Amino acid sequence: MTGVALVSESLERAGFRHGFFLREVVPDWDEACRSLDVARARLFLASQVHGRAVVSVSASDDPTEVRRREADAVLASEAGVACATRVADCAPVLLADPESGAVAAVHSGWRGTVQGVVAAAVEALGGAAVAPRLVAAVGPLIEVCCFEVGPEVAAELAASSPLGDVVVDRSRSRPHIDLRRVVGAQLRALGVEMVEEVRGCTRCDAARFHSFRRDGAASGRLLAAIVARGPGGARFSGVTGGPVVG
Ligand SMILES: [Zn+2]
Predict the structure, then answer these.
(1) How many angstroms is it from 187 CA to the middle of ligand 1?
(2) Where are the domains of the chain?
(3) Does domain 5-227 have CATH number 3.60.140.10?
(4) pTM as predicted
(5) 3-state DSSP call for residue 179?
(6) Which of 240, 4, 224 is nearest to 96 (CA)?
(7) Ligand 1 centroid to 148 CA: how many Å?
(8) Measured torsion, CA atoms of residues 236, 40, 76, 193, in degrees rounded to the nearest 10
(9) Which of the residue ranges 82-91, 123-132, 226-235 would you say has the lowest mean pLDDT?
(10) pLDDT at residue 246 is higher than 50
(11) Ligand 1 centre and the CA of 141: distance in Å?
(12) CA 245 to ligand 1 centroid distance, Å
């Protein structure tokens, strides 16, 4: 998917079609669907409200109906069903279970991070029993260079971080948050060992990303999506390449 999306090597190795799509792709989700090799009717987004609700979807669901449900994580376990999230500075997190083939797409902004939406998604995938084998990828977000917050938000995020206050950069006049580090630490504290960082600061890099902080209400949204596959490492048709051995 070179050119239209950033990808996680770990998710690729585990056989999951996915992408953190770049800004030029987002107005045309058909292009994202083409690159994921998934029908538009099998790509599911929820109505994101900065909470911790998880919605599970299957191929028989209606994407328009699912889109009206309020949730910040979308989960699927049926091969060929795609879960997606829309972000502009918030953390997009893609989760996959290499054994069952189940996936989730999570929207974790500062409010969702404080409320533990990533924990809710891991729990919905099977919790502690599956966490050690999950593959997680955290995509482009507003990084510590740009994520300036007030002292109250800094305190809430530090409290939600297993690492505590070290996620707050206090070297400048106002606190800056390392949201990537908070979300990664939350995943590891849940038992997820494979957490890949797909780097990029949405606010710094206007050529590739939308940013609400930079563009305000006019900002578009970036799509991040992942497709469930069959269980046991079986690859869904259309995937090129093979699993890495050794
Ligand atoms: Zn930045």
Answers:
(1) 23
(2) 5-227
(3) yes
(4) 0.92
(5) helix
(6) 224
(7) 10
(8) 70
(9) 226-235
(10) no
(11) 9
(12) 37
